[in-house]
């Protein structure tokens, strides 16, 4: 065979092709096989990191929302001592905060006599209220009140409760800043655990009046852990430095009789096995994926830290059966190896066959082609073969006799091609028209999406976010006025006529106001019955005239609903705005409060900071 190799072109090509395929496919296959394990772990680690970042982002949102409550509380800090003395004012303040901070579960105040008034958001559009009898330490009762006005009903009671004995109360007394408590059970439901951001309230003389508390229940965190699981059989858990399971996507890890389950419990055998690795990890140390065996099955785990404050943090722990996350990758690797081997074999086989059948008669076909290229159409190829090459030789022999027919056929095909090109051009025009129509439809849909994102669906004016965006753009370069409007006695209107009439009142109020605005003025809905207006009026007289026009328009245009004629009134607070002024909303809100306190249905405008105009 070796002696025939220099003279046998087909054998040389077959051998070279085989060596080329083997030298190319084998290193690639080996390299891919050995690197697949590293790729597999990197893929799983990215999945764990993404889930960990998702949970940390949710915790950031929860904690930032709690701190935001106390930041907003600063604007009415002088009013708080009076608010806590009136039970109805305090309850209204708690309800208002919950309506504006949806990630907060409970908001409450414990006074210096041990009494508690707490308001929380239920899971069925209701408020959960806890209230001490006689506003002091003693019996504590919980109530449920539907948002649609259904009567309050008692859902629980405890014989004695003293807010001053609670961990969140005691921690708040140690500092004037908001501080996180440890995990603790609920006052009535001992299996409902939560964490509190509390802040002390003192009078002007430094005497403690009580402590505010903002609660995040762990049931909300557990729901987020369920959503962050990287696979159906994965578990996500939050652990403190003592190994207590603060929250977990596994129901077996839930608290029992108000006490947290520890990793050493028989309910958490896997956490018990990986706890030493979690405990020894430093907060700033890079997190990596780790493998371990449990009950003869390979598992993967990943853990990271989340800070709660100075020298306080929790661990976020993931663990999953390895088969859950890598089964598809391993199967894909096996299939890829099989396909690589199969394709290599097929390439060698078909390459060898093609070489054998084509190269043998190539010289005869080359000479015949040269004769035909010189115009010798009658030249015949002498080649006796029954395979594809033999068929090619017979086709060459028929070529001269069929040349005229072939040319005629080519002309016909040319005409058909031209006809098809014309038809194709028409189809392209139709397609362009459909694309243009679809583009217009998408533009309309995008406009509708922008409308839904920027405008209140009930009143049609700018929503809270869009109004403050437009306000920020205007106040950077122009002088104007910010008006905060609140419909008087809107809750009584809802109670008397129902929520449908309340919605009609909001729409009617919006129409009355927008009809009075100038060309460059705009209005937005920033709360339930709270609205805001930006006006480019130049003087205080002009802005006062605008408020009078609004009052006159509401007085002369009553709301007609189900046979009733309803006259709406509103209180307005306002302040001037100019570039560099940062507290416009707080001032206007304070003016609104003064309007409410001095009889409602009036406007109070602050103009103390109007910048001097150049002479």
Automatic annotation (TrEMBL):
It comes from the Bacteria. GO terms for molecular function: diguanylate cyclase activity. Residues 407-448 form a coiled coil. It holds the Pfam family dCache_1. Keywords: Cell membrane, Coiled coil, Membrane, Transmembrane, Transmembrane helix. It catalyses: 2 GTP = 3',3'-c-di-GMP + 2 diphosphate. The chain crosses the membrane at residues 12-33, 335-359. The keyword Cell division does not apply. Residues 478-608 form the GGDEF domain. It is a multi-pass membrane protein. PANTHER family: DIGUANYLATE CYCLASE DGCM-RELATED, REGULATORY COMPONENTS OF SENSORY TRANSDUCTION SYSTEM. This is diguanylate cyclase. The lineage of its organism: Bacteria, Pseudomonadati, Pseudomonadota, Gammaproteobacteria, Vibrionales.
């Amino acid at each position: 065979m070796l002696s025939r190799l220099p003279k046998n072109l087909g054998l040389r090509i077959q051998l070279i092709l085989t060596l080329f395929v083997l030298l190319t496919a084998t290193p690639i296959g080996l390299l891919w096989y050995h690197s697949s394990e590293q790729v597999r772990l990197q893929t799983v680690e990215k999945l764990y990191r993404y889930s960990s970042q998702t949970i940390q982002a949710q915790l950031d949102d929860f904690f930032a929302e709690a701190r935001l409550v106390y930041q907003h509380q600063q604007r009415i800090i002088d009013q708080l001592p009076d608010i806590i003395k009136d039970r109805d004012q305090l309850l209204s303040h708690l309800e208002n905060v919950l309506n504006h901070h949806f990630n907060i579960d409970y908001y409450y105040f414990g006074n210096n006599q041990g009494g508690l008034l707490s308001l929380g958001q239920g899971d069925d559009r209701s408020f959960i209220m806890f209230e001490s009898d006689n506003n002091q330490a003693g019996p504590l009762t919980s109530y449920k009140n539907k948002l649609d006005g259904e009567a309050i009903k008692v859902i629980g009671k405890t014989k004695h409760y003293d807010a001053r004995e609670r961990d969140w109360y005691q921690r708040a007394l140690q500092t004037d800043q908001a501080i996180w408590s440890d995990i603790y059970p609920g006052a009535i439901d001992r299996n409902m655990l939560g964490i509190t951001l509390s802040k002390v309230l003192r009078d002007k003389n430094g005497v403690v009046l009580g402590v505010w508390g903002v609660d995040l229940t762990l049931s909300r965190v557990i729901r987020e852990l369920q959503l962050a699981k990287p696979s159906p059989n994965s578990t996500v858990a939050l652990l403190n430095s003592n190994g207590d399971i603060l929250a977990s996507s596994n129901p077996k890890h839930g608290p029992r009789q108000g006490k947290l389950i520890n990793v050493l419990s028989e309910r958490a055998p896997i956490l018990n096995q990986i706890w030493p690795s979690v405990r020894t990890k430093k907060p700033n140390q890079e997190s990596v994926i780790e493998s371990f065996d449990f009950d003869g099955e390979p598992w993967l785990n990943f853990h990271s830290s989340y800070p709660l404050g100075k020298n306080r943090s929790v661990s976020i722990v993931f663990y999953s059966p390895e088969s859950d996350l890598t089964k598809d990758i391993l199967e894909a690797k096996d299939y890829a190896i099989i396909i690589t081997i199969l394709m290599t074999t097929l390439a060698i086989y078909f390459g060898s066959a093609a070489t054998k059948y084509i190269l043998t008669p190539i010289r005869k076909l080359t000479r015949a082609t040269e004769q035909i290229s010189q115009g010798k159409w009658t030249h015949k190829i002498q080649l006796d073969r029954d395979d594809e090459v033999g068929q090619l030789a017979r086709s060459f022999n028929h070529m001269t006799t069929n040349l005229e027919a072939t040319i005629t056929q080519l002309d016909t095909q040319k005409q058909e091609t031209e006809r098809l090109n014309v038809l194709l051009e028409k189809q392209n025009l139709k397609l362009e028209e459909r694309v243009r129509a679809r583009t217009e439809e998408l533009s309309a849909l995008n406009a509708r999406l922008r409308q839904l994102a920027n405008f209140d669906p009930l009143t049609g004016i700018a929503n809270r976010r869009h109004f403050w965006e437009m306000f920020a753009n205007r106040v950077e370069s122009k002088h104007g006025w910010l008006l905060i409007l609140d419909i008087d006695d809107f809750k009584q209107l809802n109670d008397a006529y129902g929520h449908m009439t309340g919605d009609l009142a909001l729409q009617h109020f919006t129409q009355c106001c927008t009809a009075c605005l100038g060309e460059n003025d705009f209005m937005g809905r920033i709360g339930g019955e709270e609205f805001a207006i930006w006006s480019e009026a130049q003087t205080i007289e002009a802005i006062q005239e605008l408020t009078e026009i609004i009052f006159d328009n509401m007085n002369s245009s009553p709301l007609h609903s189900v046979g009733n004629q309803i006259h709406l009134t509103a209180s307005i607070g306002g302040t001037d705005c100019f570039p560099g002024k940062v507290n416009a909303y707080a001032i206007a809100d304070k003016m609104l409060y003064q309007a409410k306190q001095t009889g409602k249905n009036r406007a109070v405008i602050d103009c103390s900071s109007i910048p001097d105009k150049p002479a």
